[in-house]
Amino acid sequence: MIKKILILDRNHPFIIYKLKKEGLICDENYNDSTDQIDLYMYDGIILRNRLKIDKKFIEKATNLKFVARIGSGTENIDKNYAVKKGITLISSPEGNKDSVAEHAIGMLLCMMNHIIRSHQQVSKGKWNRETNRGIEIMGKTIGIIGYGNTGKAFAKKLSNFDVQILCYDIIPKIGDIYAKQVNMNMIFQKSDIISLHIPYTKKTKGMMNYDFIKKFCKPFYFINTSRGGCVVTNHLVEALKNGKINGACLDVLEYENFSFNNISHNHHFTKSFSYLIHSNKVILTPHIAGWTKESKYKMDKKIIEKILFLKKKLNKT
Predict the structure, then answer these.
(1) 225-266 pLDDT tens trace
(2) Do 161 and 269 sit in the same domain of this protein?
(3) Quick one: which of 225, 227, 182 has its CA closest to 201?
(4) One-letter-per-residue 3-state SS of the chain
(5) CA 294 to chain centre
(6) What is the C-alpha separation between 5 and 276, in angstroms, rounded?
(7) How far apart are CA 210 and CA 189, in angstroms?
(8) 272 and 204, same structural domain?
(9) Which active-site residues does the annotation give?
(10) How far apart are the two ends of the chain, measured CA to CA in Å?
(11) How confident is the model at residue 315 (pLDDT cuts 50, 70, 90)?
(12) Model pTM?
């Protein structure tokens, strides 16, 4: 039975209001560490990224029935140990799939049509037309790596651009009318544009490295709205410099801290980061692809639906 829930991240009044309306007790704690919270009191946890739900956390939360992470990734949760303890994991990737897809397309259009660069030039009184001649998306082959919620939304929104869309995923037979599912060799051979829509796992950490990049048969534009840690930035920069990658649209960076609220400055990445922020081949945004007013409501709504469904299910047993 679910009675008492702890919310560990701010700015979710809608969730709290709706759950209280269903008779659930909702406590808020936005500052204390794991050691300072009486976790055994709670049947459920709702959070984004403030704390890690690791083995130590789970051992203390002896009555925990679920962990709900608002968003798509669950890398801050020890999933294997949680499942072993009978804890249900809840996330809301359905809620921000459209905002991620729109953001990816927006970055791509800006990149291929030199919109940001030309705006900056006009603002300084420069009127350079020929050097800002763009490239159309129409007729290109787009490879989507990871065909879950955001990958599918991206493909659907691109479908009217008259492009060929290929997708790769470790799960078989999830291609649809918008994207043809193929193996990675086909992605390497055909793609003019690559978009990452993968979770951050041991297998995907640093996946986009130079050995991976050099397998592509032609230069391509690269979009990453998934996780920065899936890309080795030094290798990406090298590929941008030597023309293997035409341009990069990066909403996420390898240098982000655990909560995604900032980037960590240290000497290991100064040169690469300096290149990214000064290059005309790169567009950067601060992990905001899924960060719209609409997606905030939709993610909250989806989390509520899943918690109440679980509550109903547990009450029957």
Answers:
(1) 999 999 999 999 999 999 999 999 999 999 887 667 777 766
(2) yes
(3) 227
(4) CCCEEEECCCCCHHHHHHHHHCCCEEEECCCCCHHHCCHHHCCEEEECCCCCECHHHHHHCCCCCEEEECCCCCCCECHHHHHHCCCEEEECCCCCHHHHHHHHHHHHHHHHCCHHHHHHHHHCCCCCCHHHCCCCCCCCEEEEECCCHHHHHHHHHHHHHCCEEEEECCCCCCCCCCCEECCHHHHHHHCCEEEECCCCCCCCCCCECHHHHCCCCCCEEEEECCCHHHECHHHHHHHHHCCCEEEEEECCCCCECCCCCCECCCCCCHHHHHHHHHCCCEEECCCCCCCCHHHHHHHHHHHHHHHHHHHHHHHHC
(5) 16
(6) 42
(7) 16
(8) yes
(9) 227, 256, 287
(10) 9
(11) confident
(12) 0.93
Residue with tokens 């567009």: 283
Long-range contacts of 111-119 (CB under 8 A, 24+ apart): 111/221, 111/247, 111/249, 111/283, 112/136, 112/137, 112/221, 112/247, 114/280, 116/283, 117/280
Q: Are 73 and 107 contained in the same domain? A: no
Are 83 and 135 contained in the same domain?
no
At 57, which CATH number? 3.40.50.720
Quick one: 198 and 212 in the same domain? yes
- Other C-beta atoms within 10 Å of 224: how many? 26
Same domain, residue pair 252 and 159: yes
Domain assignment present for residue 289? The answer is no
- Cβ of 236: how many Cβ atoms within 10 Å? 25
Residue-range definition of the domain harbouring residue 26: 4-95+294-316
pLDDT at 176: 97
